Amino acid sequence: MKEQTINGKQLVKGIAPNVEPEALTNDKRKFFLFGSPSYTNIGDQAITYATEKFIRNHFPYYEYIEIMDYANDEGIELVKEIINDNDIVGYVGGGNLGSLYLDIEEDRRKVFESFKDYKTISLPQSVYFEENEHGNAEKKKTQDAYHQNKNLTIVARESQTFQVVKETFESDVIYTPDLVLSLNIVPRELEREGVLFLLRADKEKVTGEDFISQLMGWAENIGPVERMDTVLSEVDVIDYKDREKYFLKTLDKIRSSKLVITDRLHAMIFSIMMQTPCLVFANSYGKAKHSYNDWLNELNFIEYTEEKDIDKMQAVINRLLKAEPNSIDLSKDFQPLKDFFKY
User: Fold this and answer.
1) Residue 327 located in a structural domain
2) Quick one: which of 262, 261, 258, 263 has its CA closest to 276?
3) Cβ–Cβ contacts within 10 Å for residue 150, how many?
4) Does residue 23 form part of some domain?
């Protein structure tokens, strides 16, 4: 890897991997995005990919600069040295604001505390604090950190989170869809075959294995059945330079399937992008359900369900398979986010 320096000092790996070092100190207004994921969740990788496209497409006068998650502390120290009054600091969107993913939440707290005198934003998120002693303690820590920053705006990506943010934080709050829904990627022409199950294996999983086994057995009537996750197991790290490759590979996998069955929010969103029929089940705290109901329920080839009767589900699946995929236009729903960056 080519050594990068700024002001004569070597840049730590993970700081500004998307630009040349000169971009850190040029005359353009900066948007510093912290929390860029190196882990292999393609949903979170896609969010960061979409964030870059959103800023570059709508606000080319910003210098968009990423800080990888593993360089959070070093990134904070560097940005403190070079930030200007009209720059913006952000933390990447996702479904990890709360008590379930504390390593990420602790990094986000540090960022918002460190840049309390600058315009700051938490990009479209789902928020969840467990309703127990641990969850309440972590909520208090997050409130204490965020409330130090009077310049913070939190973006909620579904109505449940919008309500939670209003009740929990003193920050400004805006409401938009998940940023991946702002992408416009033309699907490749691929032959479709079989049913792809994209299922969680983490702490948000609630769909039982017995039910999954029954459904996979029935799905063999449609064609070959494959089970995987949108968290990749074949690699340990996805850095900036490899993000697009793995994201587009996942989209192709979905595009080449006749049907996707999932409990992952972004598997549903990827299916929409690839015009692949998709049946969606719940995660532990409703982000797929509320995103579907808030933004996506007019789509005729996507269905959220809590049904567990295989016989009843057959009719739903058959309808999805026969649908001529329609589309929806969410562009106007991102206007509040565009307005934030305009000023």
Assistant:
1) no
2) 258
3) 12
4) yes
Is there a domain that residue 189 lies in?
no
- Quick one: 140 and 28 in the same domain? yes
| Neighbouring C-alpha atoms within 13 Å toward the C-beta of 246 | 26
Tokens representing 276 are 């692949």
Whether 129 contacts 138, CB under 8 Å: yes
* Inter-CA distances, 198 with 92, 175, 291, 311, Å: 23, 27, 18, 21
Element (H, E) at 336: helix 335-342
Are the beta carbons of 175 and 330 closer than 8 angstroms? no
Is 0.90 surpassed by the pTM of this model? yes
Tell me how long the chain is. Answer: 343
pLDDT in tens, 283-301: 766 789 999 999 999 999 9
Q: Containing H/E element for 94?
A: strand 94-98
- Containing domain of residue 90, as a range? 5-182+332-342
Q: What is the pLDDT of residues 125-151, one digit of tens each?
A: 999 999 999 999 999 999 999 999 999
